[in-house]
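Page 42, continued from yesterday. The earlier attempt failed because a stray header line got pasted into the input along with the sequence. Redoing it now with the clean sequence only.
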Amino acid sequence: MANQDIMRELFITGLVNAHAVEKQALSIMTPQVERIENYPEVADRLRLHIEETNGQIARLDEILAGFDTSSSALKDLGLSMTGGMAALTHSVAGDEIIKNSFANYAFEHFEIAAYKSLLVMAEDGGFANATPLLKQSLGEEEAMAQWIDEALPMVTRRYATLYAEGGSGVAKV
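This time it went through. Structure tokens are written below.
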């Protein structure tokens, strides 16, 4: 197998994996945003990032179509189910908003790493047409991670205040 064929295979595998990860992100964020009541800023930013994530999926589909391939439906389903389970697990905890903030922060950094890796493969494999699309998705992930980082003090303080007021509304994320 020629080096170019190997790079193509690795790049496509990375794209399919990133597609599955974005589907997983949707399965994590969607139930979260539906439950949020006491943190409208978080709900608004999650809604925006859900829109961005749908755009990221479309961009990955566009790149994959250029290789006459598509995402793996089975991989997408498996990862979206695990994402849904993670969101469900946090929903029974009184500190759901805090745990979701930690998990979302970590997940954003996982996605950032995935896009950075894809950009290296695009450069090394000569797939320059994918670079602008991948950079756009990377920028959105970096912006979301930064927003979570900057919002964490507010979320933590609001949670502590609600808890101190007798827990009213704490379970209502």
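Notes: The CA atoms of residues 16 and 71 lie 5 Å apart.
Reminder to self: strip header lines before submitting.
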